[in-house]
Write a structure and sequence with these properties.
The chain is of the alpha/beta class. Helix content is 34%, strand content 23%. Bound molecules: zinc ion (ZN).
Length: 381
């Protein structure tokens, strides 16, 4: 008697060409996070593929960003589901594919989002198809395809949390590491846009009447950077500054973008308290600071992925490849699901690298093996 894992793995073993063709199809659709038509077009391609196999697909509509897409292979009986996740958006502007679409050189594929994470979307689609073709599991297998991860999942987060609640496991198919490893831990991160208001004055005639926003910002940046604590896994980085009017005007305004990374959920409140104190400090009398928080990603704490990783490593071994877990400072949606207490593993997509650059690549010969290992892991849950 064959097992679900073996049947799904066998189904996938002959799908390389089909997977590669679907990858090319998805890469050649522009889908910047702010391009609703584009991310929805990627969603339509996915829905068409899955529905052709009789897989149910539903949408959570959104007016601003692409709709979230939810596909499900039902289970038998009332058992907690398994969730696969992936994002359809890329960081590349609309029009990129007209000059730089999908291309390949031997077994390496190139193109915007080829690894991050259209390769992972292909894996999730084919794993779902394989598990359906193999007869399904006792538990529902759900795949969620969201549209705004690259900008912090402003609309995706709530859908992800709703869908992940009560799941037995979450598998996120962000790109596999260049080493071939999967991701067992990720930093959380948040971005603050900080604005300083000062008072303009002629720098020669009335210097004393001014209150320099640039002076205040400079003082605050030094203190904000001093919050970095490598031992604790906390970093702060002001990556962008703007401000001032002219060389002979005391700066009436200045602003910066602050990126904060941390490794444990519990660290964030204390960091935010420190940041608030720094912003409220009266560095330059007459200036005033405020901030807005744009992105927040929660960390994937390693203990939330440990059990799933050992299951995945065993499945990979059964499929003939070795894999290790890796920590990365980059954030992903897996932090949101892990923070709910749902076991989560990330970086399960095909192996690739140089994400967010025009040299982004994907190793095509990892499409089928990674899909087989993921299908096998899910089948054994
Ligand atoms: Zn990604």
């Amino acid at each position: 008697m064959t097992t679900l894992a073996d049947r799904a793995s066998d189904w996938l073993s002959t799908r390389h060409d089909e997977m590669e063709a679907f990858l090319k199809h998805l890469v050649d659709i522009d889908s910047n996070s702010f391009d609703k038509a584009g991310t929805d077009a990627v969603g339509a391609a996915i829905a068409e593929l899955l529905q052709a196999d009789g897989i149910t697909v539903s949408r959570v509509a959104n007016d601003t960003y692409g709709d979230a897409l939810r596909a499900e292979v039902p289970g038998r009986g009332a058992n907690a589901h398994v969730l696969m996740m992936g994002h359809r958006d890329t960081v590349f502007p609309k029009g990129t594919t007209t000059t730089r679409g999908f291309s390949k050189d031997g077994t390496i594929a190139y193109g915007p989002g080829v690894a991050d994470m259209k390769g992972g979307l292909v894996v999730n689609c084919f794993v779902l198809r394989a598990l359906k073709a193999a007869g399904g599991a006792d538990f529902p297998i759900v795949a969620l395809f969201t549209a705004d991860e690259e900008i912090g999942s402003p609309s995706g987060r709530a859908v992800i949390e709703d869908t992940a609640r009560g799941a037995r496991a979450v598998f996120n198919s962000e790109p596999g590491r260049v080493s071939g490893n999967v991701v067992t831990g990720r930093k959380g991160g948040t971005t603050l846009d900080i604005f300083i208001e000062g008072r303009a004055a002629h720098s020669g005639a009335n210097h004393a009447d001014g209150a320099s926003a640039i002076g205040a910002l400079a003082a605050k940046i030094t203190k904000l950077h001093a919050l970095t604590d490598y031992t604790a896994g906390i970093t702060t980085n002001v990556g962008v500054i703007r401000g001032g009017m002219t060389h002979n005007t005391v700066a009436p305004s200045a602003e910066c973008e602050l990126d904060i990374r941390f490794v444990e959920l519990g660290q964030l409140p204390a960091i935010m308290a420190d940041v608030t104190a720094i912003l409220n400090a009266d560095d330059v009398p007459g200036t005033h600071a405020r901030y807005t928080q744009s992105y927040t990603f929660l960390p994937l704490e390693a203990h939330m992925s440990a059990d799933l990783f050992s299951r995945y490593a065993k499945s990979a071994d059964d499929e003939g490849f070795a894999v290790a877990g890796e920590f990365t400072g980059g954030c992903s949606d897996a932090g949101f699901t892990a923070a709910l207490g749902v076991p989560s593993l990330c970086g399960l997509g095909p192996v690739g690298g140089k994400a967010h650059t025009d040299q982004e690549f994907l190793k095509l010969d990892t499409l089928v093996p990674r899909a087989r290992a993921l299908a096998r892991t899910i089948a054994g849950m």
